[in-house]
Amino acid sequence: MSAPGTRVPFGARLAAAMDEHGPLCVGIDPHGPLLRDWGLPDDAAGVRELGLRVVDALGGRVAALKPQVAFFERHGSRGIAALEEVLAAARAAGTLTVVDAKRGDIGSTMSAYADAFLSDGSTLAGDAVTVSPYLGFGSLSPALELAEATGRGLFVLCLTSNPEGAAVQHAVGSDGRSIAASVAAQAARHNAGASPLGSVGLVVGATIGDAARATGTELEAVNGPLLAPGVGAQGAGQRELADVFGGARGNVLASSSRGVLAAGPDGSALLAAARRSADEVRSALRAGR
């Protein structure tokens, strides 16, 4: 629930939302096949309608919503206007938003991205944004600084489930650590001393197996939220979660989009699907702890 001027850190607000609603973030991914399944046109009007229906059904009832920017951007300026409306509706509903933009650049360009997605008064700003550290973690400094100043957060790509990611994320740097481990360590430095959670989170796929251990990535030390696609009904159960997250399972925010959105367009069916997913995630994360 982005509120211009508030300085309650994102990590604290997210922890409270997860305690209240369960550790589930529902993605808003209005791709073409889903729009057709919902009986909506594959255009900006359809994207807007789907997004607003999701907010209407789930606003105030899940920990967070995560609109995927690409599905709005592909419809040009009208698609961006639809994204602005969806973010405003979620804000009005008191629901945290993670803007899934995966931005990453250097210098003034990164500063511009930060202004767009993290500054007070920006119509594209949510409560957090996804970013890529693969031009060097230091390139994220403008976003890190603005997020801290405005009480917002970042989710930094760390260990993703796509097979191509391993070539970069598992590679070993000059310091002898894997790139993923270095990303996690730098996030941990930014979160040091934060309670109950820091505001610099990581994106870690729940189906990556033992990649965290294999790359020396100490997720327990991050002290921030771990945005995790693939939990529960999406494939990762108790054993997989133990392999990936270990003692950091209490910091996991599971991400589900198609698994919940497939229940639409009926609002009550969407809510029921989200509640089932939240229960499954909560059960899987608590098992064995």
From TrEMBL:
The record's section on Gene3D superfamilies has: Aldolase class I
Residue ranges the record marks as coiled coil: none
| Matches recorded under SMART domains | OMPdecase
Enzyme class name: lyase
Tell me, what is one Gene Ontology molecular-function annotation carried by this entry?
orotidine-5'-phosphate decarboxylase activity
EC number, UniProt record: 4.1.1.23
| Active-site residues, Swiss-Prot/TrEMBL | 102
Instruction: Describe the location of the Orotidine 5'-phosphate decarboxylase domain by residue ranges.
Output: 23-273
Pfam families in the record: OMPdecase
InterPro entries (alphabetical): Aldolase_TIM (IPR013785), OMPdecase_AS (IPR018089), OMPdecase_type-2 (IPR011995), OMPdeCOase_dom (IPR001754), RibuloseP-bd_barrel (IPR011060)
Q: Does the keyword Lyase apply?
A: yes
Claim: tRNA-binding is one of the keywords in the record: no
Pathway the protein acts in: Pyrimidine metabolism; UMP biosynthesis via de novo pathway; UMP from orotate: step 2/2
- Name the catalysed reactions: orotidine 5'-phosphate + H(+) = UMP + CO2
Q: Which family does it belong to?
A: Belongs to the OMP decarboxylase family. Type 2 subfamily.
The record's HAMAP family line, in alphabetical order, gives: OMPdecase_type2
Q: What's the protein called, per UniProt?
A: Orotidine 5'-phosphate decarboxylase
Q: Which organism is it from?
A: Isoptericola halotolerans
